[in-house]
Amino acid sequence: MSQAGEVTDFTDIGVEFLLLCDGAQVVGGKLYVLGGAWDRLQFPSYPQTYPMGLAFGVRVPWTESNRAHTFAIRGVNADGDAELFKAEGQFEVGRPPGTPRGMSQLFQVALQVPLPVPAPGSYAIEAVLDDGKARRVTPYFAVQVP
What we know:
This protein has strands at residues 14-21, 23-27, 30-34, 40-43, 48-60, 68-77, 83-92, 105-117, 121-129, 134-144. It is mainly beta. The chain has a single domain (14-144), classed as Immunoglobulin-like, CATH 2.60.40. The strands form three sheets. The protein has a five-stranded mixed sheet with strand order 4-10-9-6-7, with no helix packed on it. A three-stranded antiparallel sheet has the order 1-5-8, with no helix packed on it. The chain is elongated and about 55 Å long. Mean pLDDT is 93; it is low at 1-8.
């Protein structure tokens, strides 16, 4: 703490986590995840569509609260030239009563996405905030099994 009642905290908005899972929900400010943190899919044949859950968390600093922000989440192939899906939205985090001055907040989203997997190979999920102000990439792999 720098002064009485003031919290020294993050100054830039950022993607705190981007978690691949089988299912996710945000309830009462808590994230519930089923089959989380995977980075590999295995199928005997391709193409496939996988019912993926996606958990996404944004750290919003005090100075970025009470402002509109945008996000875009997309699935891409390893080269980034083929888009598998895209989800976009806007959010605004207010300052609840009693929030200490300077304290950041966590904004969370849980999505269920039909993930196309055209062939074995390397892929990634990319999250971008405010047209590139912050970015996070989570890679995953698809392999063929007998």
